[in-house]
Amino acid sequence: MDIGIGLPNTVPGTEPQRLLDWARQAEGAGFSTLGTIGRLVYQGYEELIALTAAAAVTSRIRLTTSVLLAPLYENAVLLAKQAASLERISGGRFVLGAGLGGRDDDFAASGLSTKGRGRRFEEQLREMKRVWSGEERGFAGGIGPRTVRDGGPELILGGGTAASFRRVAEFGDGWIMGGGTPEMFAEAAVGVDAAWREAGRPGSPRKLSLAYFGLGPDARAQADGYLLDYYGFLGDVAGQVAAGAAVSPDMVKSYVSAFKESGCDELIFVPTGSGLEQIELLAAAIA
């Protein structure tokens, strides 16, 4: 199982230079990917821009939106071009993780309704794949740039419903769980695999998950301070999310072991703080 680390693009107070230093250090520590999470109505850096900055100061580590809320990007052709540009600039390292999003205020700020977002998402996916395939759509020269990977960036889709699993099988290269226990992952993975087989797809989808972490002497306070704020809109559930953050090396090790046993291909540890020591502490915990 690959172990990735999140970029602290949504951690309040993170300065631009810290994002660049974090990306360099994460690559040097041997993590498989730099992941981003994102919301619109929150203090943080937009994911595609943050990962483009990271691409400029790294050369090997994957760059994954985990996940980008695609329905907020209404112009699917423009989003396809942005994703293709980042994939090309990074030498094929970009992985587009995309999902629906569930916060009403993100959609309200965009002048959009949450109703029909699943249908709009599928229309987006079809349009983006047409662009990445090189289909000209009647425009001279087509819409580029041409991606390093045939057919466009690797596409990983989020969601925990039967409809989400069907989308993975129809459009995606894999699936990602945005948070939860290893047991929840294993149960959902069965549904993803079943949808994949039913669609007649060869092989198996790549499966990823996120897990929050914070390490060091103030780990619990750091995790609670960030996660209770970030997920405050969920009410009491925010406390459950915060309680599940890995705040000790033993918790990190247990998550790695349990997710690996559950069939996870890549586990991305998302930081709850942006101190560079967090990278070293996480690397030591999984060593």
Write the layout of secondary structure elements.
Blueprint: E1 2-6, H1 16-28, E2 33-36, H2 47-56, E3 62-69, H3 76-89, E4 94-99, H4 104-109, H5 117-132, E5 154-158, H6 162-171, E6 174-177, H7 182-198, E7 206-213, H8 219-230, H9 237-243, H10 249-261, E8 266-271, H11 277-286
Helix pairs in contact: 1-2, 2-3, 3-5, 6-7, 7-10, 8-9, 10-11
Shape summary: globular
Proportion in β-strands: 15-25%
Content-based structural category: alpha/beta
CATH superfamily annotation: Luciferase-like domain
Named CATH architecture: Alpha-Beta Barrel
Count of strand segments: 8
Query: How many helix segments?
Result: 11
Give, in spatial order, the strands making up the sheet with the most strands: 1-2-3-4-5-6-7-8
Query: What does the radius of gyration come to?
Result: 18 Å
**Major sheet description:** 8 strands, parallel, barrel
Written as H for each helix and E for each strand, in order along the chain, the element string is EHEHEHEHHEHEHEHHHEH
- Helix percentage range: 40-55%
| CATH class (first level) name | Alpha Beta
Q: How many distinct folded domains? A: 1
- Oligomeric state of the chains present here: single chain
CATH topology: TIM Barrel
**Contiguous uncertain segments of 5+ residues:** none
Provide the residue-averaged pLDDT: 96
Keywords: Flavoprotein, FMN, Monooxygenase, Oxidoreductase
Pfam families: Bac_luciferase (PF00296)
Organism: Streptomyces spinosisporus
Protein name: LLM class flavin-dependent oxidoreductase
